[in-house]
Design goal:
By secondary structure, the protein is mainly alpha-helical. The protein has 18 helices and six strands. The strands form two sheets. Strands 1-2-3 form a three-stranded antiparallel β-sheet. A hairpin with a 6-residue loop joins β2 (18-26) and β3 (33-34). The chain binds acetyl coenzyme *A. Acetyl coenzyme *A binds at residues 269-271, 273, 297, 303-310, 360, 362, 365-367.
Length: 433
């Protein structure tokens, strides 16, 4: 990656009586950053920023978020436009390569991904080792990491062609693995990919078809699935993406790095929130119970899941598209009177007019409506984070590739403020206590 950072003056700070001048850098959009790379060398002090709320960890040209305005761009294109006019595979190409493909490039890319969707037959034996009630994310973490044991010919991170092949393999095979994790849990036979189907269609048929009957993919649901994948494809330096970059910074192979991202995504504050959001809507159950529930949030007994975001201090633009998708899916399935949708709409209305949420700039995030939608499509809540991981795989790989190709890349190694014991002498066990 060629750096596009420009200079925008300098900033001075005084530390321990010493004045230090630090460069201020500018990206194409967004706030300037103070370049503190030389701070420790020149002053003997570090910066302290747990949670990285004020720290940029890398230069990136993939995704831009303006959290105050509620803007999300993939390679400069607004998410709303991509969700309306593009397709997930086109978005994958865009994220990986930086530009929208020509018709010929898209055809070639689609062909490549479609023809990498099968996994090695021996790979399927991994699944049998899991308990039947294993969480599908536990299976995902293991199975994605296990790809590195099968595809040795694409694990050399210094080889451009191998990087590309591993990227294509993961985009193609993660849906197959995700569908197998689902089928395994419900005790149905694995369904093989079909090359005459589109990416989302193929995933739906691998999840919902059974050998005993013909299965025809509902085009409205396939379109909704594809759009959900687009909405989740990338989100700049979030926790799981930073995990992928950190894992990759040591030179670990891409399959292992993406497995690390899947593990991080599993947490309820990140990708696990859609599962939690649906559980929350179910536990509220009826609009009449909302005031009491909201009071519990304000009393800090629990959080309003699907609300709030580290970066968005405005309506998450993905949540708007997701709300519309929820309506389309529920209408198509004749579930427009879904009680959970009613609870969600009313909860959102009340929260957006309540000072607790307004003053903290807490708005719905993408997870608020995704659970209702995916549930209506037939996915159990344990699969929600799996679907998120499937879609985010391309973002993780694009970010991983960018990092490997960045000449400024170093192994990630944060520092700490140590507050433990100073040096002390070992005490033999018979002299302790
Ligand atoms: N419900 C109630 N209060 C909340 C919520 C919420 N969902 N989110 C934040 N707050 C409150 C905090 O209690 C805090 O209040 P205080 O200042 O009075 O102490 C204030 O808002 C700021 O919150 P922080 O925790 O500092 O915000 P942070 O940026 O660290 O957290 C996070 C962001 C983790 C997403 C948080 O909003 C949250 O837990 N939300 C619910 C989980 C969720 O929906 N996660 C999905 C994120 S999107 C994604 O991963 C795709």
């Amino acid at each position: 990656m060629e750096s596009k950072v420009t200079s925008n003056g300098s900033a001075s700070i005084s530390v321990g009586g010493k004045e230090v001048t630090l460069p201020v850098l500018k990206g194409s959009v967004g706030p300037d950053v103070v370049d503190i790379r030389k701070l420790y060398g020149e002053t003997d002090v570090f910066t302290f920023d747990p949670g990285f709320t004020s720290t940029a960890s890398c230069e990136s040209q993939i995704t831009y978020i303006d959290g105050d305005k509620g803007i999300l761009l993939y390679r400069g294109y607004p998410i709303e436009q991509l969700a309306e006019h593009s397709s997930f595979l086109e978005v994958c190409y865009l994220l990986l390569n930086g530009e929208l493909p020509t018709a010929a490039e898209l055809e070639q890319f689609t062909h490549t991904i479609t023809h990498h969707t099968m996994v090695h037959e021996q790979f399927d034996r991994f699944f049998q080792g899991f308990r039947r009630d294993a969480h599908p994310m536990a299976i995902m973490v293991s199975a994605v990491g296990a790809l590195s044991a099968f595809y040795h010919d694409s694990t050399n991170v210094h080889d451009l062609q191998q990087r590309e092949i591993s990227a294509h393999r993961m985009i193609a095979k993660v849906p197959t693995i995700a569908a197998r994790a689902f089928k395994y849990a419900i005790g149905q036979p694995f369904v093989y990919p079909k090359n005459d189907l589109g990416y989302a269609e193929n995933f739906l048929q691998m999840c919902f078809s059974v050998p005993a009957e013909d299965y025809k993919v509902n085009p409205i649901l396939a379109k909704a699935m594809d759009r959900i994948f687009i909405l989740h494809a990338d989100h700049e330096q979030n926790a799981s993406t930073s995990t992928v970059r950190l894992a990759g910074s040591s030179g670990a192979n891409p399959f292992a790095c993406i497995a690390a991202g899947v593990a991080c995504l599993w947490g309820p504050s990140h990708g696990g929130a859609n599962e939690e959001a649906l559980n929350m809507l179910r536990s509220i159950g009826h609009v009449d119970n909302i005031p009491e529930f909201v009071q519990g949030v304000k009393d800090r007994k629990y959080k309003l899941m699907g609300f709030g975001h580290r970066v968005y201090k405005n309506y998450d633009p993905r949540a708007k598209v997701m709300q519309q998708t929820a309506h389309e899916v529920l209408d198509e399935l004749g579930k427009h009177d879904d009680p959970l949708l009613k609870v969600a709409l009313e909860l959102e209305r009340i929260a957006l007019s309540d000072d607790y949420f307004i003053s903290r700039k807490l708005y719905p995030n993408v997870d608020f409506y995704s659970g209702i939608t995916l549930n209506a499509m037939g996915f159990p809540s344990e699969m929600f984070t799996v679907l998120f991981a499937l879609a985010r795989t391309v973002g993780w790989i694009a970010q991983w590739k960018e990092m490997i190709e960045d000449p400024a890349q170093k192994i990630g190694r944060p520092r700490q403020i140590y507050t433990g014991s100073p040096s002390r002498d070992f005490v033999p066990v018979d002299k302790r206590g």
